[in-house]
Write a structure and sequence with these properties.
about 100 residues, 4 helices, two-stranded antiparallel sheet, elongated, about 40% helix
Amino acid sequence: MKDKVSVAAVRYIKSGTVIVECNSRRDAEKLKTVVEALKKLKGRELEMANPRFMLGRIDKELTPERLIKVLVRKNGDLVEACEGGVKSFENQFKERFRKRRRDS
């Protein structure tokens, strides 16, 4: 295989299956093509929901739009993972809710 595939993680599960997480969709497609060509291996793409994460101690005056701009500026790797640049990241980012502090 001449093309290199960037792998983020490899996990083994009880059934003996190996889960390979690639750094981009393009790398995942390359890996899938190679696996299908080998005939000795079977592979399939896992359907996963968009990851969620919780940010703590966010200023209540910070708007969702400003929060996205701060995340983009400070986390270039998040933007690169979206493979569509800043606009793609902005379209995928959704603020679900804000919890109020207990003492307020």
